[in-house]
């Protein structure tokens, strides 16, 4: 009986450690747990936004990329706001990005800009929401 219990506990421990090896948890500025995921899980469009690659973003929009399609629960505008990519944010807005769409956690682009201290992106968002 002891051997069975010990074997079960060891198998469970290995499974849990394998899951933790594939991801990591950190805490953001508001002490929320943030699961760090592999970059492979983010769409190519949002990767280009995060990297500030405006030429690729323009090309993808020209090819019909949806400027409001979520990746990892966030819209492209949220990624641009969060990483303070102002030129890309302006481009997304000009191509119909809806700044009021909320991420899966309930925050819109404005809130992500505030949480990230992305002041320039926040100014662009505020101006866009006023008009």
**Biggest sheet overview:** 2 strands, antiparallel
Separation of termini?
A: 71 Å
The overall pLDDT, averaged over residues, is 82
- The H/E string reads HEEHHHHHH
Number of helix segments?
Answer: 7
Content of β-strand:
5-15%
Broad CATH class of the domain at 44-130: Mainly Alpha
Radius of gyration: 19 Å
Shape: elongated
Class derived from helix and strand content: mainly alpha
The percent of residues in helical segments reads 55-70%
Proper CATH architecture of the domain at 44-130: Alpha Horseshoe
- CATH homologous superfamily caption of the domain at 44-130: Ankyrin repeat-containing domain
Strand order of the largest sheet: 1-2
How would you describe the oligomerization state of the chains in this entry? single chain
CATH topology of the domain at 44-130: Serine Threonine Protein Phosphatase 5, Tetratricopeptide repeat
Poorly predicted ranges: 18-25
How many strand segments? 2
Pfam families: Ank_2 (PF12796)
Protein name: Ankyrin repeat domain-containing protein
Signal peptide: 1-21
Keywords: ANK repeat, Signal
């Amino acid at each position: 009986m002891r051997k069975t219990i010990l074997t079960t506990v060891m198998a469970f421990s290995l499974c849990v450690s394998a899951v933790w090896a594939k991801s990591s948890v950190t805490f953001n500025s508001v002490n929320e747990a943030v699961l760090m995921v592999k970059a492979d899980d983010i769409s190519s469009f949002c990767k280009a936004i995060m990297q500030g690659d405006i030429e690729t973003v323009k090309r993808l929009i020209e090819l019909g990329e949806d400027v409001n399609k979520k990746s990892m629960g966030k819209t492209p505008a949220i990624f641009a706001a969060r990483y303070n990519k102002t030129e890309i944010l302006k481009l997304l807005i000009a191509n119909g990005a809806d700044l009021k769409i909320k991420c899966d956690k309930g925050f819109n682009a404005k809130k992500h800009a505030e949480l990230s201290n992305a002041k320039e992106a926040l100014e662009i968002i505020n101006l866009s929401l006023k008009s």
